[in-house]
Amino acid sequence: AQDPVRVLVTGAAGQIGYALVPMIARGVMLGPDQPVILHMLDIPPAAESLNGVKMELVDAAFPLLKGVVATTDVAEACAGVSVAVMVGGFPRKEGMERKDVMTKNVSIYKSQASALELHAAPNCKVLVVANPANTNALILKEFAPSIPAKNITCLTRLDHNRALGQISERLGVQVCDVKNAIIWGNHSSTQYPDVNHATVKTPAGEKPVRGLVSDDAWLNGEFITTVQQRGAAIIKARKLSSALSAASAACDHIRDWVLGTPEGTWVSMGVYSDGSYNVPAGLIYSFPVTCKHGEWSIVQGLPIDEFSRKKMDATAEELSEEKDLAYSCLS
Ligand code: NAX
Questions:
Q1: Which of the residues are catalytic?
Q2: Are 128 and 161 within 8 A, CB to CB?
Q3: What's this model's pTM, rounded to 2 decimal places?
Q4: Residues 89-99: pLDDT tens digits?
Q5: Are 34 and 26 within 8 A, CB to CB?
Q6: How far is the CA of 204 from the centre of ligand 1 (A)?
Q7: What end-to-end distance do the CA atoms of the chain give, in Å?
Q8: Are 298 and 289 in contact (CB under 8 A)?
């Protein structure tokens, strides 16, 4: 039998955490044969609720779950983890300035970076979910210099999956037959959902989405805004933000990173920019990536038209501003 992998979930008493931990314990993230030990971190006001989640994990009697650590101690939470899913953060509350929210998150991600650096397993893979996800990941990278930059990523897979879902609904095809959409940039409303290279599997072979959806105005307009604004639409409908879809996307992100993307398929991940596609180096920016042997690489050489270029630059610009704001919050 394989040794269990220790997986950290921060903010585990929150709504995404509640949806995510059972998925991990069922093998959705690391595969149906991989035993796991869950490390769940939250803050002291949520300690009792966190303990309730632990009780439910015990009650669910998951065969793959070999242990549960539920703690408010960051060092204990990070000890020996090979995968860290950072869901905990400080949410923006009504009337709060962006700078105040950033200051809170910078301080959280700075200290959690140090704890991961000191206590996590070597080669720990980190996924930041908490918003501002790209910039929180960048801060984590800055303050965990011994963790390789390629191990620190942020979640844009939910946006990617939303794009696939919209295409599938529009064309009346199965979502599993749609692939190779791209989310460029920030996990925010400036993200650019790009379908120029996306395809649909049909009985007659793979066809470009651009050929199947004849309505360019929809693809260049409503499709993009629907994906960009989907988070807000979920809040409006549910009075709560996306949770099950976010948890599922986090599993997809780690599974593909660890186990590899299928041949001919790419996915979107927020990764440390090396300057590919003229995106400024040193930002955590969402790119199309393929994964093999536990490492991602950016898909190279895709043609970028003028429409796309403008949108890719606008979201890069926003990330540069966020980066400056984050640095100005460092005390
Ligand atoms: P909740 O408020 O339900 O849960 C957050 C949890 O984090 C709470 O239990 C809180 O006590 C805990 N927490 C706060 N500070 C912490 C700290 N310093 N250490 C450990 N835990 C801490 O929010 P939820 O709906 O679960 O969303 C979590 C985060 O995901 C938010 O930042 C949200 O904006 C972000 N999202 C990101 C998405 C993405 O695609 N990247 C999509 C979904 C979601 O909106």
A1: 187
A2: no
A3: 0.98
A4: 998 888 888 88
A5: no
A6: 44
A7: 48
A8: yes
